[in-house]
């Protein structure tokens, strides 16, 4: 196969995956969005979109077009946190907003020159957070779920969200250092302290895992009392 024919076939394949997966995601998410959030088949269109960008956009874009598309992509990504509410059927059609925004940013790269959207994204504090974003994501989830189960709230207030974010950053840093210490090559003398670091890592995970597993039981045990209180109040 030539490179051109291979690329054509790849575009057709990923294009079909994009259409089928996205259409299925939109339809199925309307019925029951919760389990579909973790269904890889319903999220394949997101990966397919990235593949299509890599296959189709192989040359630098004109500077003016890159500026417009780049800033449009950045606005789409940032605005998702404000536009998508707690009752949104995610990851249905709503997921198109941040995914297309990210695809636009990848597509334009730094073709926008000094006025491109990539300029503010190069800020040191943003790249620092970006390097640790996955760890922050993993840590924020159990804390957020614990808060919702503990309080019975439907969403997380801004001030609580900021606290969760701050704790997630700290826990992400701690996990990063612990993993780096355990995996770093060391002498025989240094290996003796590895067990202590593993204990610390397990303890950190337990700090979050314990309330997450205990919260549902605690909430369930309070449900009868809360129902009785409501009946009495009525």
Automatic annotation (TrEMBL):
Residues 4-173 form the Acyltransferase domain. GO terms for molecular function: acyltransferase activity, transferring groups other than amino-acyl groups. GO terms for biological process: lipopolysaccharide biosynthetic process. InterPro entries: Acyl_transf_3_dom, Acyltransferase_3. It comes from the Bacteria. Keywords: Acyltransferase, Membrane, Transferase, Transmembrane, Transmembrane helix. The chain crosses the membrane at residues 9-30, 42-58, 65-84, 90-108, 129-149, 161-182, 198-218. GO terms for cellular component: membrane. PANTHER family: ACETYLTRANSFERASE, ACYL_TRANSF_3 DOMAIN-CONTAINING PROTEIN. This is Acyltransferase. The lineage of its organism: Bacteria, Bacillati, Actinomycetota, Actinomycetes, Micrococcales.
């Amino acid at each position: 196969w030539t490179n051109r024919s291979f690329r054509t076939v790849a575009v057709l394949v990923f294009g079909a995956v994009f259409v089928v997966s996205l259409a299925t995601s939109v339809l199925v998410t309307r019925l029951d969005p919760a389990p579909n959030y973790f269904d890889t088949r319903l999220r394949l269109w997101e990966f397919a979109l990235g593949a299509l960008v890599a296959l189709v956009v192989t040359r630098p874009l004109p500077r003016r077009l890159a500026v417009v598309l780049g800033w449009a992509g950045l606005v789409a990504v940032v605005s998702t946190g404000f536009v998508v509410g707690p009752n949104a059927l995610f990851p249905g059609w709503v997921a198109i907003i941040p995914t297309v925004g990210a695809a636009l940013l990848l597509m334009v790269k730094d073709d926008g020159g000094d006025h491109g959207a990539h300029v503010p994204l190069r800020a040191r504090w943003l790249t620092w957070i970006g390097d640790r974003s996955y760890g922050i994501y993993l840590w924020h989830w159990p804390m957020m779920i614990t808060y919702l189960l503990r309080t019975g709230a439907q969403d997380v207030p801004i001030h609580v969200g900021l606290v969760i974010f701050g704790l997630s950053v700290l826990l992400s840093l701690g996990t990063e250092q612990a993993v780096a210490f355990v995996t770093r090559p060391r002498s025989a003398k240094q290996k003796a302290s590895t067990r202590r670091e593993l204990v610390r890592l397990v303890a950190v995970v337990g700090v979050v895992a314990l309330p997450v597993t205990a919260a549902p039981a605690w909430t369930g045990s309070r449900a009868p009392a809360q129902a009785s209180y409501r009946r009495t109040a009525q």
